[in-house]
Amino acid sequence: MSQWTVYMVECSDRTYYTGITTDLARRLAEHNGTSKGARYTRTRQPVTLVYSESRQDRSAASAREYQIRKLPRAAKQALISAGTSG
Asked: Taking the model in full, what pTM does it have?
């Protein structure tokens, strides 16, 4: 079974985008230069990875992504400052 990663990137306009993937390096490359990146990040390149954490399955990763997306900006910044958690 694949290991899933929940990640947050900071876009060039200083907004945050949160997503999930099984290959973080590939996904960041997609956000920064291909048409496979999220529509949100296509016009906000370059993006920089600011946070990531691992989850065992897609369901857990999706649930955590949803939790992070609901957070206000200040809480996201605190999460980034606290570093990676598991």
From this structure: 0.91
